[in-house]
Structures are given as structure tokens and as C-alpha cells.
Design goal:
globular, 12 strands, alpha/beta, Rossmann fold
Length: 289
């Protein structure tokens, strides 16, 4: 699985050619004294597309990989291909980290939820979570929802353009102390008006999908906003919120913290998220983001 202090890892996903994960992982691993390679497996380059996922996992195991990260659109599709799931991954119905064990088993983990929650806690320690609005019920939204439930949110408003997707997330995470409510997208701005915080977990705002998922008129100075996107590090919505004086959290901290936890799962060594954060900002500056 590994040579002496050497690790093969990677990322499986779609349109990931510009991902910063290889540089982020490999530089931190060097700082930890590891011989660590992080390769990209883009399903866009596979003749079978997403259907190539089982073959990619088989190939990784055969070649001695320690594990891999999994991103859009494969966080749910990978689950039936694994031998066991962490409690968190099973609860969320999404996996972003796979570890190949010495016994030849595949373990599914989710580090996104911890990255989200820790990023919010570190950046806005006093963030109110009585009522929180969540835009987007995909994989990132599920991770944020799970984290907010763990943080003691009383009410979570789940908003997605696909009502079925919002309903599925509500059904999956209901049953605890947090009340989850599916909200039609047309009612989003009205319901945000009564929320303590807003989590932006849609792809709208990424470099390749510019714009804002809601009108900035829905924002107000006492509403905190957390963004999932980190390229660009400041989305249009985040900029509008900061102009208004809202407490804000960019997506950089989440990507660093989830990556740090993934490195620990792969190697057994604790990564330094502060060092990784500095490196991420340098990488984004090089890209002009």
C-alpha cells in the first residue's frame, strides 16, 4: 500500500484538471517528511465516463494506493463500491475520502462535514445557529447540514431548485434534535429573512459558473454567510455580504481542513491546517483568483 514513508493517493472526479489538491496535499506531505504523490483521475478522460469508477478504484488498489479523495459527481456513486463506511459518511449518504486498508478493504469517510464545521467555528466562534438557511442539497450541502446538526442548530431550512433533492436530505438527517424543513426555492429569500445564518452550497459563483444564487437584497448586516466555493476565494455573493457588513466565511478554510483530515486518514500523521491555509492562499494568488 505504501513504500517506506511513501504514499500514493489521488482524486477522482469530473472536470478536475485545474484542481489545487495535488499541490496542496503534496506540499504539506513534504513538510511532514513524506514521499507522497497525489494524482488526478478525471472521468472526462475515461471512455466510460462515470461508469469507469469501479475500474479506477480497482486500478488504484492494484497499484498500491493508500487511498483517494472523491468529488463531484461521485460522492454517492462510490458508496456501493466500498466495504464499510464511517458513521458520518453513512449518515450523510456521501463519501469524499476512501482508504484502502492493508487487508484489501475499502473504507469510506467524509471529511467535508468536519471541514465545514471547524471552518465556521474558527472564523465566527459566536455564530448563532438557532435558524440556518442552506442553499443547495448536494454533497457539500449534506456535509454542511450534518455539521450544523452536530453544532446544535434548532432549525435548518433546506433550499434547492430540485425539491426532491431537498426532501431526500431532510429525510436522511431528520430524527435528531434539529428540525429540518424543505423550502421551495421561490420562498428562499423570504425564509432567509428570519435566519441567523446562510450557507451557500451551490456551484453558482464558481469561476466557471459566475453569478449569485440569490439576490443580494436577501442579505442583511446581522446575517452570517458561509461560502463553500473557494475558486474564486471571494465570490460575488461573498463580496456583496462583506460590503453590507455581514460576518462571512470563505470556502478556503473548509477545503484546507477537509484535506488535512484526509491526509491524516491516508498516512496516520496530523497535517498542519494553518500551514496548509497559507499555501492555499499562495496557490490562489498564483492563479489570479
Amino acid at each position: 500500500m505504501t513504500s517506506e514513508r511513501g504514499f500514493l493517493t489521488g482524486l477522482i472526479g469530473q472536470s478536475i484538471g485545474q484542481s489545487l489538491s495535488p499541490a496542496l496535499h503534496e506540499r504539506e506531505a513534504r513538510a511532514l517528511g513524506l514521499n507522497y504523490r497525489y494524482r488526478l483521475f478525471d472521468i472526462d478522460a475515461e471512455p466510460k465516463g462515470a461508469a469507469a469508477l469501479p475500474d479506477i478504484l480497482d486500478r488504484m488498489q492494484t497499484e498500491g494506493y493508500a487511498g483517494c479523495n472523491v468529488t463531484f459527481p461521485l460522492k454517492q456513486a462510490v458508496m456501493p463500491l466500498l466495504d464499510r463506511l464511517s458513521v458520518e459518511a453513512e449518515a450523510m449518504g456521501a463519501v469524499n475520502t476512501v482508504r484502502f486498508t492493508a487487508e484489501g478493504k475499502r473504507e469510506g469517510h467524509n471529511t467535508d462535514w468536519w471541514g465545514f464545521g471547524e471552518n465556521l467555528r474558527r472564523t465566527i466562534p459566536d455564530a448563532g445557529v438557532d435558524t440556518v438557511a442552506l442553499l443547495g442539497a448536494g454533497g457539500a450541502g449534506a456535509a454542511a447540514a450534518y455539521a450544523l446538526c452536530r453544532m446544535g442548530a434548532r432549525e435548518l431550512l433546506v433550499i434547492d431548485r430540485d425539491p426532491a433533492k431537498a426532501g431526500e436530505l431532510v429525510a436522511r438527517l431528520s430524527g435528531g434534535s434539529t428540525t429540518l424543513l424543505p423550502v421551495p426555492f421561490e420562498e428562499a429569500e423570504t425564509r432567509i429573512a428570519s435566519a441567523d445564518g446562510l450557507v451557500q452550497a451551490t456551484p453558482i459563483g464558481m469561476t466557471k459558473l459566475p453569478g449569485m444564487p440569490i439576490s443580494p437584497a436577501a442579505l442583511r448586516p446581522d446575517l452570517w454567510l458561509t461560502e463553500i466555493i473557494y475558486v474564486p476565494i471571494e465570490t460575488e455573493l461573498l463580496r456583496a455580504a462583506r460590503t453590507l457588513g455581514c460576518p462571512t466565511v470563505d470556502g478556503g478554510g473548509m477545503v484546507v481542513l477537509q484535506a488535512a483530515r484526509a491526509i491524516e486518514i491516508f498516512t496516520g500523521l496530523a497535517a498542519d491546517p494553518y500551514r496548509m491555509q497559507s499555501h492555499l492562499l499562495a496557490l490562489l494568488q498564483q492563479k489570479g483568483e
